[in-house]
Request: fold
Amino acid sequence: MTNYREILRLSSLQYSQRTIESMAHCSRHTVRDVLQAAKEQGISWPLSDDVANADLEQLLFPNRHKASSQYAEPDYPYIHRELARSGVTLTLLWEEYCARCQEAGQRPYMSTQFGERYRRWARITKATMRIQHKPGDAMQVDWAGDTIPIQDPVTGEQRAAYLFVAVLPCSYYTYAEACDDMKTENWLNCHVHAFDFFGGVARLLIPDNCKTATLSNTRYDVILNRSYQELAEHYGTAIVPARVRKPKDKSPAEASVRFAETWIVAALRDRKFFSLRELNEAVAEKLDELNSRPFKQMAGCRRSAYLEEEKPYMLPLPVSAFEPAVWSVAKVANDYLVTDGRNKYSVPYNLIGERVDIRVTKTTVEVFYHGNRVASHRRLQTRQRDPLVKREHMPPERQKYLTYNADEFSRWAMSVGPMTEKVAEHFLKSGKAAEQGYKACAGLTKLEQRYGKQRLEAACYSGREKLTFKCRAFETKFSRKR
Reply:
């Protein structure tokens, strides 16, 4: 019997057909036919030890056995492709196979034999690698364990860059990007870039249990990061975190992370990078090489497998772009300010002491109380010394203080009387700036509202010899007259 295993083994070692003919003790035509059939059937070396030559012959040349066999041979590549589609089972395909046999007047295999023969074909051709994952069903994401150093061109100081990896487990198509940290904003942006790279969205997102993905993951309940949930809702996907201490839940992602560490991180180990942009340009080059690298035990590569088998099943990208937002919870301080981590922003003063939700995007800071938006600010892009405060958020007294000006106080004092005008002028000019006298002048207006213009003018007249006027002294005079 022809040694089909030996022919495939020698071919994998790049021997010529003439050399294989001599070493396998068969004709040149046999070698040619075996290699051609193996290519058509997707069979390649290495093969499992339990695959006999008789099994190989049936798979390589099924037509040779049709005359002697009473049963119709299933179309195994078709079965494998259909099983990758959502909802398709081996039982359904067997029933369809039986219907076709009945129409053609052929005898079908029973369900058990049908399944056994398909599994044997899948084992020999290594086709089972992608059968466990439906196309477009999931995108698995993780951070690589190894970092890449970036050197400051001026000081020479080094900082670490972290590699984000996203993989589609059906085709093993991979996306990678370097970030300066693993915080929520970068986590979300990397997802957006991954969706754009794939040109579609998987039905499920399967992250690890990092804080940027989940706040809690127990056997009973999963609490997702609010920002991450917003991203999933925008793209129409669902987040299903891998179970804690269940590494098999993410084996393709873990394998692709290791592969990325080898072909990206390790491959760049001797290069020096002086900016994140420069590093990501190099990562993109290595990523292209990784996705174009041929499979060892299957035909094609990650890119071709994605384009041919998975891309048609991906969900479409949404029309509007997603703006990543980071949520946090804070207690409003006595100065009625909250922070985005860099600058401070005002909220209505009556929320002092209350807990509010803060939503921060690249351009906006929003504050919510009991689900209602109570404040919105344009986000400051650089660190500022002073907070960004809106007038309507201030207490009434503070709002009124902002309307004060020297001319207004002078006109008011003139309407009361000449001595009141003199006192107000003293308050406004005794300091280095007129603003230093605003509070004292405001005190005079309150006294006028409380005691009237005549009594205020009289009090100012009685203190005309002393130019060290103090508003409290006037109030004392009024108290004595009572």
Observations:
- The chain has four domains: 70-131, 138-313, 326-394, 404-481.
- The first strand starts at residue 138 and ends at 151.
- Residues 138-313 form a domain with the Nucleotidyltransferase; domain 5 fold (CATH 3.30.420.10).
